């Protein structure tokens, strides 16, 4: 029976992870003003707009941050965490669940940027067509994160700024997201 629960937990994580990723890409694309004429951007906007349009009437953007998309990502991760608890036969306490889902959100954003920076760096090293939609969108998303170090960590013809940013993001996962997750787990199981 635990194998079935593990399989169901994995399916829940995949489904809600895909939903969270779609809305996080929308959030990042809007924040960085990615090219809307990019077919990938149009796909993302088309499939996220039916959910975000009603929420945006109530929850407006803050600067260039789409708070409605951020709320949807957080809710997806909250529901995912709740379903995993329920599948394991445990009902968490609400404060712990809220802190855990906040930690999940932070960790998800950090992991998202690690993956996008790594993928973008790999694609640029392989001399992929710079006008390819995925490369353009990833380039727009990573540019604000890499800009402060761009050109400062060049050795020969290799720019090490993506490596340094990935290391900083990994440290943030270890030093910020993990302790917050531990706190949330403690609050979820203690009364």
Explain this structure.
It holds the Pfam family CCB3_YggT. Keywords: Membrane, Transmembrane, Transmembrane helix. By secondary structure, the protein is an all-alpha fold. It has one domain (2-189). It is built from six helices and two strands. It has helices at 2-31, 39-58, 67-87, 94-125, 133-146, 161-189, and strands at 154-155, 158-159. Strands 1-2 form a two-stranded antiparallel ribbon. A hairpin with a 2-residue loop joins strand 1 (154-155) and strand 2. Helix 1 crosses helix 2, helix 2 packs across helix 3 (67-87) and helix 4 (94-125) runs antiparallel to helix 6 (161-189). The radius of gyration is 18 Å and the shape is globular. It starts with a helix and ends with a helix.
> Low-confidence spans: pLDDT under 50, at least 5 residues?
none
Mean pLDDT: 92
How many strand elements? 2
Q: Globular, elongated, flat, extended or rod-shaped: what is the shape?
A: globular
Number of helical segments?
6
**SSE pattern:** HHHHHEEH
Range of strand content: under 5%
Most strands sheet: 2 strands, antiparallel
C-alpha end-to-end distance: 29 Å
Class based on secondary structure composition and strand pairing: mainly alpha
Radius of gyration: 18 Å
Q: How much helix is in the residues?
A: over 70%
Strand order of the largest sheet: 1-2
Supply the number of structural domains: 1
Protein name: YggT family protein
Keywords: Membrane, Transmembrane, Transmembrane helix
Organism: Dyella flava
Pfam families: CCB3_YggT
